[in-house]
Queue: 2 jobs
Job 1
Amino acid sequence: MNDKESPLNERAKVTLPTKSQAESILDVTSLPKKPDSVPPELSILDEQWADLAQDWQSQSFVKTDINQLLKQTKQRTLVAKFLLLLDIVATVGILVVALYMWINDSKDRATMIYLASGGALSVIYVYYAVKFRVRAWRVNCGSPDKAIEHAIAGCESSLSYIKLIKFSCFIFCPIANWYLFTASEQADKSPFIGLVLLNVIIIAIWLASQLFYRKRNKELKFLNSIDSK
């Protein structure tokens, strides 16, 4: 028997696949594809995170307004100091004139009494005005970390000062009316027009003070709501 035709040689033969057969065997296109769609659970979570990120980015942060708040507080402090200086100068002026009239034994008793009483009340007014203002200025150190605290102190000082102005209107009104009526009688003139104008001015001052009071009170509530967060 020929060795090439022996059963052992038949079993030892290895059949190699052809190129086309190998390509068909290694054809990756026949493998299962990765699904393009995301599972519903993951899609919902992504949408929720996107909504949260959008809400967070859309929020207004107080930090971005710190510089503006510091600038506003500084400007209001300068205005308050200027107004307080005017109050002090006016008070000193009233007292000096009243003292001058008293030393020279002025015959205009009504004016002297009016200036003396007005000067005394003005001293009390300035005392409380200085007290309210200095209390707020001591807190204000200009630090950006305490900008909201400084603004709150400034608003509280302004509210106290405005209350003082409104209260002074009630005290000043009868004294001014008395003086205008007495001075008109001494000059033999009708006090009607003067009294009307005087009271209109006093009412206008009170209404303007009330308007500023409401505005500052609204600002104070807003600042307190920010500071509590």
Note: Residues 4-14, 22-28, 60-64 have pLDDT under 50 and may be disordered.
Job 2
Amino acid sequence: MTLRCAAAVPVLFCLVQSSMQAEARPLELKWSELAPTVQGHQAELTLTGGTRVTGEVAAIRDDSMVLDVKKTSDAKAYPKGNAAIPRASIQLVKLKRSGAWGKTLGTTLGVLSGVVVGGYVAGTTQNNAGPGITIFLVIAGAMSVGGYLLGRRADQTATTIRIVP
């Protein structure tokens, strides 16, 4: 594998992941269909008036959604902790989920390409073992961490839900 091929692997991985991040149309659900989809997941609610509230959905009631608020744009109306968000004030629900395949694939590609690129650069630029080993370790480590971070970003998905009457 040449240096050009080894460098193309992470670039290709980035391009594929960025093309998959396109925003889709919101999923439209009735209030009665919402509970099995969102309960127990991290969600960002967009409320009437532009307020955003983020946290874990604890329960769905007939008239409200119980949320363990972690982050809010209006701390006076919705402080951190458990809050019942009225059904009428919820405009959009954005579910945040993460998987594991991207981290595994990204780390594997990062390690493999890091070893190849690091070995090539260290072998062709240094005549002494000391600086060559340091260069190899820095490049291999940086590409491994970069692969993990790209894979973690690829694992994160968001589903936007609009509640219909």
Note: The mean pLDDT is 81.
